[in-house]
Amino acid sequence: MRPRRASRGPSAQVLVALWGAGLVLFNFPMLIVFDRDVTVLGLPLLPVALFGNWALLIGALAWALERGPARRRGSEPPPSNPVPPAPPGAP
Amino acid sequence: MIAPSLVIGASVGYLLVLFAVAAFGDARAARGRSLIGSSWIYALSLAVYCTAWTYFGSVGRAAASGVWFLPIYIGPTLAMLLGWIVVRKMIRIAQTYRITSIADFIASRYGKSPLLAALVTLITVIGIVPYIALQLKAVSAGYHLLTSGPDLVEGPQVGWWRDGVLFVSLALAAFTMMFGTRHLDSAERHEGMVAAVAFESVVKLVAFLAVGAFVTWGLFDGMGDIWARAQAFPELRGLLRLGGEEGATAFGFADWFALTVLAMLSVLLLPRQFQMMVVECVDERHLLRAAWVFPAYLLLINIFVLPIAIGGAVLFGPGRMDPETFVLSLPLAHGAPWLALFAYLGGLSAATGMLIVETVAIATMVCNDLVMPALLRRRGFGVRAQGDLTGLLLNIRRAAIVGVLILGYLYFRIAGDAYALVSIGLISFAAVAQFAPALLVGMYWRGGTRIGALGGLLGGFALWTYTLMLPSVAKCGWMPAGFVEYGPLGFGLLAPERLFGLVGLDSLTQSLFWSLLVNVTLYVGLSLWRRPDAREASQGLLFVEVFERAQPATGGAPVFWRGRARLEDLTALAARLLGPSRAKALFEEHARETGVGSVARLVPDARLVDRVERQIAGAVGSASARVMIASAVQEEPLAIDDVLEILEEASQLRGYARALEEKSTSLEQATAELRAANEQLKSLDHLKDDFVSSVTHELRTPLTSIRALSELMLDAPEMGAPERERFLRIVVSESERLSRLVNQVLDLARIESGHAEWRSAEVDMRALIESAVQTTSELFRERGAEVRLVLADDVPVIRADPDRLTQVMVNLLSNAAKFVPATCGRVDVALRRDGDGLVVEVRDNGPGVPPGDHERIFEKFRQGGDAQSRPSGTGLGLPISRQIIDHFGGRMWLEQGPDGDPCFAFRLPFATPGTP
Predict the structure, then answer these.
(1) Is A23 on the interface with B (CB under 8 A)?
(2) Is the pTM here over 0.80, yes or no?
(3) Residue of B nearest to A21 (CA)
(4) A43: helix, coil or strand?
(5) ipTM at complex level
(6) Residue ranges of the alpha helices (H) in B416-506?
(7) Residue of B890, B103, B322, B84 lying closest to A18 (CA atoms)
């Protein structure tokens, strides 16, 4: 049963690895690395780095989840994939 | 300043829109065309996490301490990174066992314990009431700011009968009752409510982004400009560094980590998150998208927090204005009252979304886990009593909704002013974090027991009360403040915010540390101390192995129940709790699935009892359902051996099912193979028939002419010698054709059957081609055709049968000779090296073969051209040639040159398999 289940979704190993990366990126001592009196395009580095890392992590998560074999193989009925409601500003 | 009537009118109008969205969602659900069956709606509904706290409190926190508002949103991102693993398991468990609240989840895991359910419910209610007060406070403060202008931060206290907040609470209670308790659903799904919350998530995001854009590009010249102008204020200069002015050493890394962990747990354990994420989930695969869209939403809504906070501080001057109201006061003070009103509606939607979902979730818990068990114990209300209970259940929930909102309102009136928004919210977060060990560890560790969970929850909750709740009460002036400062009766070691002398952490972090430490210690320690009893063990197994056990393919989860039941008792119980029509549908469905014709002939076995219990659990919670089932049927107490036995049976059953499945697949495979073999035999038979009829046809043609000529000569003795000689020549040539044909048929049969004799010798293809051309030169001379040779020098000697290859070459050349035009015929023969093989091409300028026939021309008796015009031949030359080339591991084909000339070619590898 186990291998079949594992092949039906995104890889759990990748997700746990991303989680570990998130824990490190947003904690001591990694935060000290970004704590400098430097500005990026006129903005202080620390918030830029926090938001940038955050966006990168979300991007990686989206990649890991959306490329999952569950969508490609079609061993199950494909998930309903309707047009997203398109309110201005919705993510 | 905006007129109060306008603010109230806009708020009422907004609530009406919300009402319409929810009504539309419910109507669509009733027609079976669900509005919420989309991963995007699911993701938006998770954004109920962003409450008025996000709206107002984050900006306040950012203005005071820079990036410290972020852990509350980074934590959920970390949780969602594991969402597909953890949340999916929660969803699967909840949907398999009809679990409808977090209290139910924990109680059900530890043997459906009513005590545990009640404890979790109590902790939730006590922990969440401040959070509800927070929302009311935000709405109220926003209202006062809009109507009285930015200068007046707090409105004058008015009598409760004139307080708008009370009426907002009551209106929300009405709304929640309308959509949260319209009917009793065993899955506890509220489609209209989910649609409304998703709509609110869009509104609050758009409103917040609008204010952010207004501040950043309307009042300033981009984010860089805000920061550049903030440099003028010494208070703001160090704001965006860790630890502010004093540098990273003063930064509370432990506090930062604690906040992250707290938010990570809260996004899974807050009642409203559990309701939206687990209970209202339509399809667990929606999680694939929601797990990243929800963090992306959090990121978007936080992008402008710092610009608004710092921009507000720059414009108003640091410390002049309550930064928690910047979202409203900035547009209001800079000539954009409409934007302020829109932002207020955004904040209102953030608050109302939270209030609606939270109260529905808590009302379900209060009804199922506090009130129902108490009612069930009362005499005269016992399980044997008659009457439909569904109406009563709904009314209990409605009362609970009003009760929770009123409690929140009271807390707001009494203690609302003492704290900043953020601190109130964090107290609630720390309360629900106490569920983490029992719930999250219990999902992966089978050894957790009821005693352990009870001990852990009680210990953790006690420490939370002592270290976080009591100090907050004391700060409101309800207790002597010296208690917090110096400890009870002056015992400094017991001071709630410096317990056992733990200093250096903020009060939240040290409270979280002590409470979770005690919680985990008691949970693990007590669980290890006593072995789980049968019911705990079986429930633990069903939870931990939900993916393996509860597969429909293997007959569903094993049923841990033994006893005797009467069908009438079960139907009566179901009808009482689910309503007559749903109960009837339940039994009919079970009868259909088990293949029994009618409900009356159903056997009340363990599986049926389990099914009824699960359905009832959806309505009244698993603990109450357990009590009711236990009193309606005669149960045998389960021992741990019984659990093992049932498991054994289940796994045996599963083994049989799997064996059966394997057998049937192998049978299917064998059938398919047989069918294929049969098809092949049939086509071979057909080919043989074709072959025989072709051969006899080809034999008959020369035979007919030989016989006709012979008879002619026999009947005409006076025939002249020249004529007779001509006839005899024809007879001889036809006989030759006959014998050639017979030879070729025999040859082909030998090759095909593998009985042909193959010699093996060194063959120089150049010499072989030259001699074959020599042999056939007479043919070409007769046709007046020219033969040109282009033979490469670098072709090595190969090992093959030279006679056979000569046969192939002669065949190709005589074929070409037959088809070249009568005048200026031309044949090109080429030999070249091609990788690890050689290629021979024979190209003529005769009529080509249609591309569709390029393969058919190699079939037996299939000659090029139409029947009238084609020259004599047996139609076996090409098939034989191809068989020979195949034998040496090569390949023969016909291609069309660029000028349309047909070109027969074959390729032979240097190392031919046919040679020894």
Answers:
(1) yes
(2) no
(3) B78
(4) strand
(5) 0.76
(6) 421-432, 435-436, 442-444, 450-464, 470-475, 482-486
(7) B84
